[in-house]
Write a structure and sequence with these properties.
seven-stranded mixed beta sheet, 11 helices, binds flavin-adenine dinucleotide, FAD/NAD(P)-binding domain, globular, single chain, 396 residues, eight-stranded mixed beta sheet, alpha+beta, D-Amino Acid Oxidase, Chain A, domain 2
């Protein structure tokens, strides 16, 4: 079958990638009536749960796209984060007083979030070209000529005025534009698992356990039908992890890092994974006719569940500025967007790095200092509210 890309010659915007960031950008650009071609190198979206938290600010910015009712129907509302060490609560972060209509974190697996964004695009008749891989871009007097690899080793060229790289952490768009990705690798690895288990804490809480072995997060997840039963997400830092952790690995983590909570009993391991993580930021997110959003622009620790949220917000904030540049040739909005989003990404990297490091203090003195600092934040409502609003990304 001939791909639309083989007959098409030009567009205003080429979006590379159809993860949550690319889907959110496409929805906003469609709404603003901008001509877009969107490609993804995979024949279908990944069907794994990955990012599981949607914060208040993300729900707010997605309202105009019309997807929030579906997200709310599939997610579960969690109004409390608690930082714990053994049985002790070191800090309670309550979202019930944040200045938003959504006074909670919404737990919703990433594949579900992507399916909802995708369904809305389909309802608007928008097509994603896949599999279609962005290979390279060269400059021409009228824009950029993108080379795309299609299935069966066929190729296509597309003249575009703008390219937006929403193509994840190994972004080819970023590489082609010669933009460095500055930062470092975490020494430790992350384990991730979705399980059905008996768990003694409330399902209205995300628990962050600090322990000398590392950080562990236990968060309730909805069932695919949106119901709240006994499904949980577990994320933990470990010195080295098996490629696919098994039930015993997860039970050991629960036993070691929530020692007095319960004898952990996992009934079903739905999905597990492990990965190396980095904290990196693109040195520019706007260079000539190239823009970067989401993981292509920044990656960091999953502590606080900020990754996908920041990416979607990059995209939604970009859309009107890009429309302005296309319609009036005015690039001021894009320059401002780039400055603001790099600042947001730097702040997110700093906060998630601090949360990850705070979990594993080097000495008992550092631990005492940490506990005192957390105790102080928890005892001053102003600071507690500020932190809740920051995690909900309401300052952005
Ligand atoms: C195992 C795992 C667990 C995670 N857990 C969490 C979590 O708990 N909390 C959290 O906040 N975040 C988590 N993340 C991170 C989160 O998934 C990302 O922040 C989010 O997916 C970023 O969205 P994105 O659209 O920017 O990039 P991606 O989701 O990476 O999407 C990029 C898209 O671009 C496509 N693409 C790439 N290269 C090309 C090319 N050359 N041409 C065409 N298409 C291309 C890919 O196929 C993909 O569809 C996790 C990630 C992983 C891998």
């Amino acid at each position: 079958m001939e791909s639309l890309l083989q007959s098409m010659r030009q567009t205003d915007v080429l979006i590379v990638g159809a993860g949550p960031t690319g889907l959110a950008l496409r929805l906003e650009l469609e709404r603003l009536g901008i001509a877009v071609v969107q490609v993804d190198k995979h024949a279908a979206g990944l069907n794994t749960s990955r990012a599981a938290v949607i914060h208040a600010r993300t729900l707010e910015v997605l309202e105009p796209c019309g997807v929030v009712p579906a997200l709310l129907s599939k997610g579960i509302e969690v109004p409390d984060f608690r930082v714990r060490e053994d049985e002790r609560v070191l800090l309670h972060i309550g979202f019930d007083e944040i200045p938003s209509r959504y006074r909670y974190a919404l737990m919703c697996p990433q594949n579900q979030t992507e399916a909802i964004l995708h369904a809305e695009l389909e309802a608007r008749g928008a097509i994603i070209e896949r599999p279609a891989e962005f290979l390279s871009a060269t400059e021409s007097p009228d824009g950029l000529i993108a080379q795309l690899g299609l299935s069966g080793e066929r190729k296509a060229s597309l003249l575009t005025r703008w390219i937006v790289g929403c193509d994840g952490s190994s972004s080819k768009v970023r590489e082609q534009a010669g933009i460095p990705f500055v930062g470092d690798d975490y020494a430790e690895q992350f384990i991730l698992a979705d399980v059905h288990m008996r768990w003694p804490l409330s399902r209205r809480e995300v628990s962050l356990f600090f322990s000398s072995d590392g950080l562990m997060v236990v968060a309730p997840l909805p069932e695919p039908d949106g119901a709240s039963r006994d499904r949980y997400r577990i994320v933990a830092t470990v010195p080295s992890a098996p490629a696919v952790p098994v039930i015993e690995d997860i039970e050991t983590l629960l036993r070691e890092r929530s020692p007095r909570m319960a004898t952990p009993q996992i009934d079903v391991l739905v999905w597990s994974s492990s990965f190396h993580l980095q904290h990196r930021i693109a040195s520019q997110v706007f260079k000539h006719r190239t823009l970067l959003c989401g993981d292509a622009a920044h990656v960091h620790s999953p502590a606080g569940g900020q990754g996908m949220n920041t990416g979607i917000q990059d995209a939604v904030a970009l859309a009107p500025r890009l429309a302005q540049a296309l319609r009036y040739g005015n690039l001021t909005g894009l320059t401002e967007w780039a400055e603001q989003r790099r600042q947001v990404a730097s702040d997110v990297i700093r906060m998630t790095h601090a949360m990850t490091r705070m979990a594993t203090p080097g000495s008992s003195f550092e631990r005492a200092l940490r506990d005192a600092a957390l105790g102080l934040v928890g005892s001053i409502p102003f600071l507690q509210h500020k932190l809740a609003a920051r995690i909900a990304e309401l300052g952005n």
